[in-house]
């Protein structure tokens, strides 16, 4: 989609340098993806603790360690 935008040139240049982006199109796409990712993280964090049936990180790690140990034959 083509559009005309008025964006601060210094911010564009700084962001492109910081993230190694070559085009303004890449920059806009990256920025939109990052905004959507951040919102998804916020939603996930807001639901934290609302799913008591899900295992904790400690439980997942214990299971993973057991599977690794079993795979090694110990």
Question: Would you mind describing this structure in some detail?
Answer:
There is one protein chain. This protein is an all-alpha fold. It has one domain (9-71). 66% of the residues lie in helices and 0% in strands. It is built from three helices and no strands. The chain has helices at 9-19, 24-46, 57-71. The termini are far apart.
- Beta-strand fraction estimate: under 5%
Number of strands: 0
Distance between the termini: 58 Å
Spell out the helices and strands N to C. Answer: HHH
Give the domain tally.
1
Helix content bin: 55-70%
Give the number of helices.
3
Main attributes?
74 residues; mainly alpha
Describe what is shown at a glance.
66% of the residues lie in helices and 0% in strands. With 74 residues, the protein is mainly α.
How are the elements arranged and paired?
Elements: H1 9-19, H2 24-46, H3 57-71
């Amino acid at each position: 989609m083509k559009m005309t935008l008025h964006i601060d040139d210094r911010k564009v240049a700084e962001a492109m340098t910081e993230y190694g982006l070559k085009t303004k199109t890449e920059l806009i796409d990256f920025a939109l993806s990052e905004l959507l990712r951040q919102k998804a993280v916020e939603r996930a964090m807001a639901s934290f603790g609302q799913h008591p049936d899900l295992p904790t990180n400690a439980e997942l790690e214990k299971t993973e360690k057991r599977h690794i140990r079993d795979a090694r034959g110990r």
